[in-house]
Amino acid sequence: GENVEQHPSTLSVQEGDSAVIKCTYSDSASNYFPWYKQELGKRPQLIIDIRSNVGEKKDQRIAVTLNKTAKHFSLHITETQPEDSAVYFCAAWNSNSGYALNFGKGTSLLVTP
Amino acid sequence: KAGVTQTPRYLIKTRGQQVTLSCSPISGHRSVSWYQQTPGQGLQFLFEYFSETQRNKGNFPGRFSGRQFSNSRSEMNVSTLELGDSALYLCASSLNTGGRDYGYTFGSGTRLTVV
Fold first, then answer.
1. Which residue from B minimizes the CA distance to A41?
2. Tens digit of pLDDT per residue, chain B (115 long)?
3. Do the Cβ atoms of A100 and B45 come within 8 Å?
4. CB A72 within 8 A of CB A5
Protein backbone atom coordinates (compact mmCIF):
# COMPACT_ATOMS: atom_id res chain seq x y z
CA GLY A 1 0.00 0.00 0.00
CA GLU A 2 0.87 3.68 -0.02
CA ASN A 3 3.55 4.80 2.45
CA VAL A 4 3.84 8.48 3.34
CA GLU A 5 6.99 9.67 5.10
CA GLN A 6 7.01 13.12 6.72
CA HIS A 7 9.99 15.17 7.90
CA PRO A 8 10.94 16.68 10.21
CA SER A 9 8.94 15.35 13.15
CA THR A 10 9.53 18.59 15.06
CA LEU A 11 10.39 22.06 13.79
CA SER A 12 11.07 25.23 15.73
CA VAL A 13 11.30 28.61 14.00
CA GLN A 14 11.32 32.23 15.05
CA GLU A 15 8.34 34.40 14.28
CA GLY A 16 8.66 35.85 10.81
CA ASP A 17 10.85 33.04 9.49
CA SER A 18 9.72 30.47 6.94
CA ALA A 19 8.94 26.84 7.71
CA VAL A 20 9.13 23.92 5.31
CA ILE A 21 7.71 20.45 5.88
CA LYS A 22 8.46 17.67 3.41
CA CYS A 23 6.63 14.46 2.59
CA THR A 24 7.47 11.59 0.28
CA TYR A 25 5.11 8.95 -1.04
CA SER A 26 5.72 5.53 -2.48
CA ASP A 27 2.92 4.93 -4.99
CA SER A 28 3.37 6.83 -8.25
CA ALA A 29 -0.39 6.54 -8.84
CA SER A 30 -1.09 8.95 -5.97
CA ASN A 31 -2.81 12.05 -7.30
CA TYR A 32 -4.31 14.00 -4.40
CA PHE A 33 -2.24 15.52 -1.60
CA PRO A 34 -3.97 17.42 1.24
CA TRP A 35 -2.40 19.04 4.28
CA TYR A 36 -4.08 19.21 7.67
CA LYS A 37 -3.33 21.42 10.67
CA GLN A 38 -4.15 20.24 14.17
CA GLU A 39 -3.88 22.71 17.01
CA LEU A 40 -3.46 21.37 20.51
CA GLY A 41 -6.65 19.69 21.68
CA LYS A 42 -8.50 20.44 18.47
CA ARG A 43 -9.55 18.57 15.38
CA PRO A 44 -7.40 18.36 12.24
CA GLN A 45 -8.45 20.92 9.65
CA LEU A 46 -7.73 20.96 5.94
CA ILE A 47 -5.54 23.95 5.11
CA ILE A 48 -4.49 23.34 1.52
CA ASP A 49 -4.43 20.56 -1.04
CA ILE A 50 -2.89 19.90 -4.43
CA ARG A 51 -3.63 17.52 -7.25
CA SER A 52 -1.11 15.79 -9.47
CA ASN A 53 -1.82 17.96 -12.50
CA VAL A 54 -0.52 21.03 -10.65
CA GLY A 55 3.04 21.75 -9.51
CA GLU A 56 2.37 24.48 -7.00
CA LYS A 57 -0.54 26.06 -5.17
CA LYS A 58 -0.60 29.11 -2.92
CA ASP A 59 -3.05 30.48 -0.39
CA GLN A 60 -1.82 33.64 1.30
CA ARG A 61 1.15 32.64 3.49
CA ILE A 62 1.01 28.93 2.76
CA ALA A 63 2.01 27.08 -0.38
CA VAL A 64 2.40 23.50 -1.42
CA THR A 65 4.73 22.19 -4.11
CA LEU A 66 4.62 18.80 -5.77
CA ASN A 67 7.40 16.95 -7.57
CA LYS A 68 5.83 13.89 -9.18
CA THR A 69 9.10 12.60 -10.58
CA ALA A 70 10.72 12.52 -7.17
CA LYS A 71 7.44 11.61 -5.46
CA HIS A 72 7.61 14.30 -2.87
CA PHE A 73 5.55 17.30 -1.86
CA SER A 74 6.20 20.10 0.58
CA LEU A 75 4.34 22.64 2.67
CA HIS A 76 5.83 26.12 2.86
CA ILE A 77 4.71 28.65 5.45
CA THR A 78 6.12 32.16 5.10
CA GLU A 79 6.17 34.95 7.69
CA THR A 80 5.30 32.51 10.44
CA GLN A 81 3.23 33.66 13.40
CA PRO A 82 2.75 32.10 16.86
CA GLU A 83 -0.73 30.96 15.83
CA ASP A 84 0.89 28.75 13.18
CA SER A 85 2.14 26.55 16.04
CA ALA A 86 0.42 23.19 15.58
CA VAL A 87 0.92 19.67 14.27
CA TYR A 88 0.79 19.45 10.48
CA PHE A 89 -0.10 16.25 8.65
CA CYS A 90 0.44 15.51 5.00
CA ALA A 91 -1.59 12.84 3.21
CA ALA A 92 -1.76 11.12 -0.13
CA TRP A 93 -4.51 9.35 -2.02
CA ASN A 94 -4.61 7.07 -5.03
CA SER A 95 -7.17 4.72 -6.48
CA ASN A 96 -5.42 1.74 -4.88
CA SER A 97 -6.19 3.31 -1.50
CA GLY A 98 -9.88 2.98 -2.12
CA TYR A 99 -11.54 5.59 0.01
CA ALA A 100 -8.74 6.06 2.52
CA LEU A 101 -6.26 8.89 2.86
CA ASN A 102 -2.77 7.77 3.89
CA PHE A 103 -1.30 10.19 6.41
CA GLY A 104 2.24 11.03 7.40
CA LYS A 105 3.04 10.89 11.10
CA GLY A 106 2.95 14.62 11.56
CA THR A 107 5.27 17.55 12.17
CA SER A 108 5.04 19.55 15.36
CA LEU A 109 5.75 23.18 14.46
CA LEU A 110 6.60 25.68 17.17
CA VAL A 111 6.83 29.37 16.30
CA THR A 112 8.52 31.39 19.01
CA PRO A 113 7.98 35.16 19.32
CA LYS B 1 -24.36 24.53 9.49
CA ALA B 2 -23.60 21.92 12.15
CA GLY B 3 -20.21 20.27 12.03
CA VAL B 4 -19.25 16.68 12.66
CA THR B 5 -20.43 15.54 16.07
CA GLN B 6 -18.74 12.76 17.96
CA THR B 7 -19.96 11.33 21.23
CA PRO B 8 -18.85 10.80 23.85
CA ARG B 9 -15.82 13.09 24.07
CA TYR B 10 -14.07 11.03 26.71
CA LEU B 11 -14.29 7.40 27.78
CA ILE B 12 -12.48 5.31 30.33
CA LYS B 13 -12.87 1.58 29.99
CA THR B 14 -11.33 -1.51 31.53
CA ARG B 15 -9.40 -4.12 29.57
CA GLY B 16 -11.70 -6.76 28.16
CA GLN B 17 -14.71 -4.47 27.94
CA GLN B 18 -16.27 -3.25 24.74
CA VAL B 19 -17.06 0.29 23.64
CA THR B 20 -19.25 2.01 21.06
CA LEU B 21 -18.44 5.43 19.64
CA SER B 22 -20.84 7.55 17.63
CA CYS B 23 -20.40 10.02 14.79
CA SER B 24 -22.94 12.27 13.11
CA PRO B 25 -21.60 13.72 9.85
CA ILE B 26 -22.34 17.08 8.32
CA SER B 27 -25.85 17.20 6.90
CA GLY B 28 -25.76 15.95 3.32
CA HIS B 29 -22.46 14.15 3.73
CA ARG B 30 -22.85 10.46 3.09
CA SER B 31 -19.29 9.26 3.60
CA VAL B 32 -17.95 8.67 7.10
CA SER B 33 -14.40 7.55 7.77
CA TRP B 34 -12.82 6.57 11.07
CA TYR B 35 -9.21 7.10 12.10
CA GLN B 36 -7.21 6.16 15.16
CA GLN B 37 -4.74 8.82 16.30
CA THR B 38 -1.86 7.96 18.60
CA PRO B 39 1.28 9.99 19.37
CA GLY B 40 3.65 7.54 17.75
CA GLN B 41 1.62 6.42 14.74
CA GLY B 42 -0.23 9.52 13.62
CA LEU B 43 -3.56 8.98 11.91
CA GLN B 44 -4.32 5.42 10.92
CA PHE B 45 -7.32 4.51 8.78
CA LEU B 46 -9.88 2.18 10.31
CA PHE B 47 -12.77 2.07 7.82
CA GLU B 48 -15.04 4.12 5.58
CA TYR B 49 -18.78 3.88 5.10
CA PHE B 50 -21.02 5.22 2.39
CA SER B 51 -24.75 4.62 2.15
CA GLU B 52 -24.61 2.04 4.93
CA THR B 53 -21.91 0.04 3.13
CA GLN B 54 -18.32 -0.39 4.21
CA ARG B 55 -16.23 0.50 1.16
CA ASN B 56 -12.79 0.30 2.73
CA LYS B 57 -11.18 -1.26 5.76
CA GLY B 58 -7.77 -0.56 7.22
CA ASN B 59 -5.31 -2.96 8.75
CA PHE B 60 -6.90 -3.39 12.16
CA PRO B 61 -7.98 -6.60 13.92
CA GLY B 62 -11.54 -7.84 13.73
CA ARG B 63 -12.20 -6.44 17.21
CA PHE B 64 -12.73 -3.12 15.45
CA SER B 65 -16.01 -2.90 13.61
CA GLY B 66 -18.42 -0.27 12.47
CA ARG B 67 -21.70 0.43 10.81
CA GLN B 68 -23.62 3.25 9.22
CA PHE B 69 -27.29 4.00 9.49
CA SER B 70 -29.70 5.28 6.86
CA ASN B 71 -29.32 8.85 8.18
CA SER B 72 -25.53 8.56 7.61
CA ARG B 73 -24.73 8.47 11.32
CA SER B 74 -22.02 5.96 12.04
CA GLU B 75 -20.88 3.96 15.00
CA MET B 76 -17.68 2.08 15.63
CA ASN B 77 -17.30 -0.70 18.14
CA VAL B 78 -14.20 -2.09 19.77
CA SER B 79 -14.59 -5.38 21.59
CA THR B 80 -12.26 -7.01 24.12
CA LEU B 81 -10.41 -3.77 24.74
CA GLU B 82 -6.63 -3.81 25.12
CA LEU B 83 -4.37 -1.19 26.67
CA GLY B 84 -3.01 -0.41 23.21
CA ASP B 85 -6.45 0.69 22.07
CA SER B 86 -6.07 3.86 24.09
CA ALA B 87 -6.17 6.63 21.50
CA LEU B 88 -8.10 9.51 20.03
CA TYR B 89 -10.69 8.17 17.59
CA LEU B 90 -11.54 10.66 14.88
CA CYS B 91 -14.51 10.58 12.59
CA ALA B 92 -14.21 12.31 9.22
CA SER B 93 -17.15 13.38 7.10
CA SER B 94 -17.09 14.01 3.37
CA LEU B 95 -19.63 14.46 0.61
CA ASN B 96 -19.30 11.15 -1.16
CA THR B 97 -15.70 10.49 -2.06
CA GLY B 98 -14.14 9.50 1.25
CA GLY B 99 -11.96 12.57 1.42
CA ARG B 100 -10.10 12.04 -1.82
CA ASP B 101 -11.51 14.96 -3.78
CA TYR B 102 -12.41 17.64 -1.32
CA GLY B 103 -10.78 16.52 1.87
CA TYR B 104 -12.37 15.65 5.15
CA THR B 105 -14.12 17.56 7.88
CA PHE B 106 -13.08 15.95 11.12
CA GLY B 107 -15.01 15.70 14.34
CA SER B 108 -13.42 16.61 17.66
CA GLY B 109 -12.80 12.97 18.42
CA THR B 110 -13.45 10.57 21.26
CA ARG B 111 -10.57 10.14 23.68
CA LEU B 112 -10.59 6.49 24.78
CA THR B 113 -8.48 5.41 27.73
CA VAL B 114 -8.22 1.71 28.53
CA VAL B 115 -7.05 0.87 32.03
1. B108
2. 679 999 999 999 999 999 999 999 999 889 999 999 998 788 999 999 999 999 889 999 999 999 999 999 999 999 999 999 999 999 999 886 656 666 789 999 999 999 9
3. yes
4. no
